[in-house]
Structures are given as structure tokens and as C-alpha cells.
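User: Show me a protein chain along with its predicted structure.
Assistant: Here is one chain, sequence first, then C-alpha cells.
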Amino acid sequence: MLTVTNLRTGYGQSVVSSDLSLQLRDSEILAVMGRNGMGKTTLLRTLVGVIPAKAGSIRLDSAELAGLPSYERIRRGIAFVPQGRQIFPSLTVMENMLTGARGRVEQSEWDEIYALFPVLRDMRARKGGNLSGGQQQQLAIARALLTRPKVLVLDEPTEGIQPSIIKDIARALREIRRLRSLAIVVSEQVVSFMMDVCDRALVIERGRFIHEAERAHLDAAKVKQLLAV
């Protein structure tokens, strides 16, 4: 589905990550774990084109994306839920969702969104800035889904969210994968969330992957130790 080869990225003259390679399988949920400042967000922003790659390849369904602007990557099938949600506070919930729509939204799409996130139906006329952090996160995911992606990329989706909503988001991601058969990349620091949602995990340290394991072989204690170093 998504293949990253020898990716080199950073800000200005500073290199954050070099020679990163990964493969995302069809309908897989891949967690990228790491402490703050280790390169998770830089990697994800490079995948979606917010930060240009300095070198390397990003291929989606065999099409090269590395030289394309972010809006073109969205058209090719990558959707991004950024850290901090970045919803429009002065727009209603419905208006926020429509900013992600690609053409006319079918009733079946609305039904699916509201089945995943019932609170958005109830609050569709409310301003986005009046929602809680967890509700804004659900709104940001719904907005991304209306781009009809093949790959959904989420940066720190549990940040600042209460534990009960974290469980709802984990459930929603598993259900999205089942309904849409899409692949998901999620950066995260909460090990319990990662263990609940992912099929495979990578741990990044100083811009390099230092550990990888399938869900069945993940050692939560070891991952916590790596994140605490």
C-alpha cells in the first residue's frame, strides 16, 4: 500500500531523520512510537507533504509521491489528522467536516460517519471551538475520512484526551479499518492505546527505527522501557 525507502527529512539545514524505510500493508494499522523530539511528527508530516523530503522515495500504490504537494497527495489517497486537531473553531461541526469533502457527500457516507461518531450528529450545528478535545479529535478524523483516503495518517491522536474517549478512538479506528479496508499510520506515546489498536509497531529514536514487532509479539514492557530511555 505505502512504501517508504531511504527517506531523509528535516527542517531547513537540520536533518531529523535519514535512511528511514518502512512498508505499510493493505488494511494494516501501524503504530510509530517514540518520545517527544525523536522524529515521529517529522516523519508523518513528510509522508503527507507538509515537510518536503530531502531525499528518498514515498510510493502509494506504486505512484511516487515524494515530489508532490500535500493537496495532490490527498487526491492520490493520503489523509492527515494533525497533532492538535487543527479544526476551524468558528465553523460548525458540519462545516468543518465539509472542508474535507471531495465533491458531493453521499448519504451512506454521513450514515457511516455518524455511526462511528454519534456525538457529531448531535452537535453538527455547534461551533467547532465549543467542542471538548475528544470531540474535536473525532471531528478531525471524520473530516479526514470525507477525503475518501486509502491511507489515514494520525499524529498523536490521544494527546490531551480523557481515557474514556481514548478507548472510543481506538474502537473507531478498528471499525474504520473494517468498513473502509484502508491502512492507518498512527504516531503515539501511550503504550496501552498502541497495544489496543495496532497490528504492528515501530519505535523511533533520534530519527531511526530501533525496534519493530508484530502485535502478537509486542512486549509492552520493552516498549515502555525504550520510550523511557
